[in-house]
Amino acid sequence: MIEFVFEDDDGMVEEQDLESYDVVQPFAWDKNTTQLLVEQYMSLKDAFRDPKVKKKKLWTKIKNEFLSKRHHVTEDILDRKWRNLKKTYTGIKDNIRKTGRGRIYWEYYHQFNEIYREDKTVNLPTTISTSTPLSVIQKLPIKLQPLNEVGPRDLPQPSVPATPQKESSLLTP
């Protein structure tokens, strides 16, 4: 048995057993606690999407569920874990969309797909990107003539200037 000795302001010494205190160990995520988080989030999915509902209250509900199962965790730890899980999910979705890469297996992928199926921030629409503008060119049939059949009218003519030019003979005295 571990004992602590406390001295108060009056100099009185008091001994207490460690077993009388509920010692909280640092929280560590495992498969069961991660699955519990995913299930709890799924049950509150609609509330998390409601802009009128404070997310802190929802995380408190989930925290209370964790506490009932003797998992000592804070709302901030839950929120941070969820953000990391969501980042993993979006990274895998991006990987699947790209060609030439193999699929990545993640045990929570199907559950996250269910949660974020209709979420526009995760399921971005497919777009086509190009560095040159797209244009529509209509091709017309071209009638080619052999060169020996080309007459003087068919040859390209020099262009005529838009403003009339004065002849140089008129300019000299």
UniProtKB/TrEMBL annotation:
Alphabetized InterPro entries for the sequence: Myb_DNA-bind_4
Domain Myb/SANT-like DNA-binding: 29-115
Entry's transmembrane regions: none
Pfam family, one: Myb_DNA-bind_4
Stretches with biased composition (Polar residues): 160-173
Region (Disordered): 148-173
Protein name per Swiss-Prot or TrEMBL: Myb/SANT-like DNA-binding domain-containing protein
